[in-house]
Amino acid sequence: MFNTPFLLSFSLLLSFPLLFLFVPRILPPRHVPISLPDELDDLALFRRATLASFGDGATLSRLGTTNRKPKIAFLFLTNTDLHFAPLWQQFFQNNEEFYNIYIHADPYSKITPPGGVFSGRFIAAKKTQRANPTLISAARRLLATALLDDPLNSYFAVVSQHCIPLHSFKYVYESLLLKPISDTRSSSLPMYRSFIEILDDEPQLWDRYNARGKNVMLPEIPFSRFRIGSQFFVLTRQHALVVIRDRRLWRKFRLPCLNLNSCYPEEHYFPTLLSMEDPDGCTHYTLTRVNWTGSVNGHPHTYRPLEISPQLIHKLRQSNSSYSFMFARKFSPDCLQPLLDMADNVIFRD
Ligand SMILES: *[C@@H]1O[C@H](CO)[C@@H](O)[C@H](O)[C@H]1NC(C)=O
Ligand SMILES: *[C@@H]1O[C@H](CO)[C@@H](O)[C@H](O)[C@H]1NC(C)=O
């Protein structure tokens, strides 16, 4: 005869596999960062931007033969006030024909519109959060809106509310658009390339790859093609289009993470996609300096007012590539005044 404890443990044992079979169907998924209506909204926007840009891959080269000047689209991705708006305001001053500004501000946070060059520059935005793919969506929304808005937008620079410029607008514009690629490794490289960090040898890469579960990224993204880099980049128009057209990699990157400690999808999606699609069209480094020494909780070193000096600006500009760093992060909001104090004599003098 079976005794009761035996029966009990036997039925428990039996129920385990059943649990695995049925629980995912009974309970809704724990974490759905991007709803179907949001996803469809985005798809419609990306489709419109793709159609409108059809055949404009040659915009930059055509521009050479007309007197219409290419522009840089500055894409501000924020969930707070734009603390450094007055500094950026000075950066943009008197260059109206050469740039456009677009701001994606989390609609769930209270933001004081900064006015000046920023007025009317807010785009249709959706909620953004750390540790899930909403930051990728926000950046893609910015790219698509800027692609649609002005065919002269030729470079697309993503910055955050914690970023500051390290050079004058003129310096940035001329470096990007008038004397491009002085560090050409071979004459077969395209004239204009994207400035995006693309790394493949970081120690945390394996955990990041498996953040959504083991082998989930296959077959689209084998580990050998998975990359890491900063989410703050400067893309060519052609690459902005590559990003908003992508459906294949997005299907994987939009999946929620199981391991939230290794969940930074926006640091992987863009470098992985572009290194698969057009590695030679990317410089593989970023123009935005960030100090990871002593980082806390995935946040880099945040500069405080007492650290701000002309020497710091000069040090932050120094890079190992032939391009100087043009932007830097992160700075605490109260750095604004010390930065403004040396804007004319240090930051914008180059
Ligand atoms: C980077 O941050 C560390 C503190 O975490 C600081 O000691 C160092 O001076 C910073 N480096 C630069 C170039 O600012
Ligand atoms: C430049 O390269 C050196 C040597 O690899 C490295 O120690 C340094 O941090 C690099 N500087 C920057 C700004 O990346």
Shape: globular
The span between the termini is: 91 Å
**How many strand segments?**
7
Runs in which pLDDT lies below 50 for 5 or more consecutive residues are 17-30
- What is the mean predicted local confidence, pLDDT? 88
- Rg over alpha carbons: 23 Å
Helix amount:
25-40%
Biggest sheet, strands in spatial order?
2-1-3-5
Q: Ions, cofactors, ligands: which are bound?
A: 2-acetamido-2-deoxy-beta-D-glucopyranose
The ordered string of helix (H) and strand (E) elements is HHHEHEHEEHHEHHHEHEHH
Number of structural units classed as domains: 1
How many strands, which pairing sense, and closed or not: the largest β-sheet?
4 strands, mixed
Q: Strand percentage, roughly? A: 5-15%
Give the helix/strand class: alpha/beta
Contiguous helical run count: 13
